[in-house]
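Appendix C. Worked example: Protein hit
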Amino acid sequence: MSDESNCIFCKIVDGEIPSAKVYEDEDVYAFLDLSQVTKGHTLIIPKVHQKDIFNLNPDVAAKLFRRVPLVAAAIGKAFHPAGLNVLNNNGTLAGQSVFHYHIHLIPRYDEKDTFTFSFKSHAEDYSNEQRSAIAQAIAENIKGE
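Step 2, the predicted output written as structure tokens:
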């Protein structure tokens, strides 16, 4: 079976599985995450199946990302959060559990939110030369459009 035939998000888009729809157009579907990490936690997905950021078609990405501020602003007007996390997990190690590309919009209300997200700085682990070599390795692998 293909990824699409087993994909819960494709089934949501097709209406086979119910969802709390927030927004829909010809390319994008947004709905409440069942977990509701915080009130208004919303997922935005392309209607066409795309596995992750590594496989995301640039045209699909452009259509999807164009809707992110629209939905985020609506969350802001509806619930007046103090902030909002825009989050995307790619691959199992990064926490991706549904392998249909999606963006989480997680409203933040106060320090008591159950959602925790933090970075540990490793700035002192790298010299300027090492950072330059890392940047160069990435830059060399960027393909022009």
